[in-house]
Specification:
Helix content is 22%, strand content 36%. With 201 residues, it is α+β, with helices and mostly antiparallel strands. Strands 3, 4, 5, 6, 7, 8, 9 and 10 form an eight-stranded antiparallel sheet that branches. The protein has a three-stranded antiparallel sheet with strand order 1-2-11. A hairpin with a 6-residue loop joins strand 3 (49-51) and strand 4. The longest helix has 16 residues, at 7-22.
């Protein structure tokens, strides 16, 4: 005669059978909108607000929650070879910030390079007074103290994309986790030969 399973043993068998039948379950890292560009895909965090890009050089534009504030984040694309070298773009961003104490922006900036999901991503993180031109070629410059610039150059088969966010240091510190998650969602995508922009970030 077959001995009946004890209650605890029966539960264990049921759990094991269910696990074998369904396999492991994982939660998605990002739950926002999937965006597909030439050579690049990314997921926008669900709390971000998508805006219509305000110029042709901007392929995506968002408002990122940062406590009580919202800070603009822009993704730029200028074609495969239209925006200068990697180092020239990093120098341009560093030149938009004047750190306190008279130090050079390069001396205080955090710069790194990461390879993931078929992409190479170069990060720039620097704080100080934001002194960028009000618009490219205008000859007029901003003077906004206590700012922080987070930016990235994302190398793809379609050419580099440029991600940039600038805001008050406290606000940028609040949005940094979602910014990092946004960059972490990026992966190589299919090419689209019709996509291109102009000018510089």
């Amino acid at each position: 005669m077959q001995t009946p399973l004890r209650p605890l043993a029966a539960v264990a068998v049921l759990l094991l059978t269910t696990a074998c039948a369904t396999g492991p379950r994982t939660e998605p890292a990002h739950t926002g909108t999937l965006t597909t560009l030439s050579g690049l895909e990314f997921q926008t965090p669900v709390a971000w607000t998508t805006r219509t890009p305000s110029s042709s050089m901007r392929v995506a534009e968002f408002l990122v929650p940062a406590g009580a504030a919202e800070v603009p984040l822009v993704v730029y694309y200028f074609g495969p070879d239209s925006a200068g070298s990697l180092e020239a773009n990093i120098e341009r961003w560093l030149g938009q910030i004047e750190p306190e104490g008279g130090q050079s922006a390069r001396a205080v900036a955090s710069l790194d390079r990461v390879e993931r999901n078929g992409l190479v991503v170069h990060h720039v993180d620097v704080a100080g007074t934001y002194v960028a031109e009000t618009r490219p070629g205008s000859g007029e410059f901003l003077n906004q103290p206590n700012q922080r610039l987070l930016a990235a150059i994302v190398e793809t088969d379609a050419g580099p994309y440029y991600v940039k966010v600038v805001g008050a240091q406290e606000a940028v510190a609040r949005l940094e986790p979602s910014y990092r998650a946004f960059l972490g969602s990026m992966r190589a995508g299919a090419l689209d030969a019709t996509q291109a922009g102009e000018l510089h970030p």
